[in-house]
Amino acid sequence: MKHPMLLWLAGITLTTFSLNLAAAEKNIHQGIVDNYKAEKVSDHVYVIHGPAGQPNKENQGFINNPGFIVGDSEVAVVDPGSSAAIGRAVLAHIRKVTDKPVTKVFITHIHGDHWLGNQAFKEDNADAKFYASAGMIEDAKQGAGDSWIETMDSMTEKATAGTELVIPTEALTQDQEIKVGNVTVKAHLVEGKAHTSNEVMFEVLEDKLLFTGDTISNARLILMDEGSFPGSVKNAERIAAMDLSTIVPGHGATGDKAIVTAYGDYMNKLYTSVKELREEMEAHEMKPKIAEKIVAYKDWHSMDDTLGKHISLAILEAEQEDF
């Protein structure tokens, strides 16, 4: 008979081996680890700027700008991406910068390319807290979360498979301030719609930096199927009035308020043009005339593919204003 101590040690060894094997089997988006870097954009903030385009098999769903805030004793993540594998890659980049625990994750809105990476941070720290608006949390619980899992699986041809929902539990209030060690993060809930409903922007007070989520995009057009053009203009005006030095958009390069001004100008010119022209011509006839008015933005990514869609959506919104 084997000595009880040997059996106990064998059990420990087997358990450790099983845990290590399970960890090794977890997918990680190695392309993000190898081909991207966490750029330091302010004293406490780093951003991994994602590529342009829609989620697909090649990018494995990585298209947004995951960011992280490093305080003196802990770390917070903003919008960790669209899969567990992407979240694990973001965590790998954090570990290149610091070994401080990731205790908080902030989510800007319901679209899955921004928050399905939550799983990686729950795996890393079971006590981590996940923050979002009350509306986003409710939408996720009512089926939007499951729908986004399916959408990402479909768009990436199963490259995001295995991702599990980790729905935020901490509902934010307007102007709520949350400490990340010695750094203060302030939640700005968006009134009405901009890119979609129930959005939150996150200000890092000490750095005069704002994570805008998809309420602002830099030099690229994004989908507005659930959004509002005048709402986007109003939100851009709100940001422009804030005391900020750095803007981290949901997509595109980090910059200053010029990003906000340009995005708001595009939204305003498109919407006012649609309202002026809709009684005279059909949507497809508007496109060349509106393109002339927004010529400053002609080189923005996906302009050719998306401008017509924006015009059609703007017409629908303008018609709704009439009732």
UniProtKB/TrEMBL annotation:
GO BP: antibiotic catabolic process
Domain of life according to the entry: Bacteria
The UniProt record lists the keyword Signal: yes
Signal peptide annotation: 1-23
Keywords: Signal
Metallo-beta-lactamase domain segment(s): 63-251
Keyword Signal: yes
Matches recorded under InterPro entries: Metallo-B-lactamas, NDM-1-like, RibonucZ/Hydroxyglut_hydro
Family, per entry: Belongs to the metallo-beta-lactamase superfamily. Class-B beta-lactamase family.
UniProt protein name: Glyoxylase, beta-lactamase superfamily II
Organism: Thiothrix caldifontis
Lineage, broadest ranks: Bacteria, Pseudomonadati, Pseudomonadota, Gammaproteobacteria, Thiotrichales
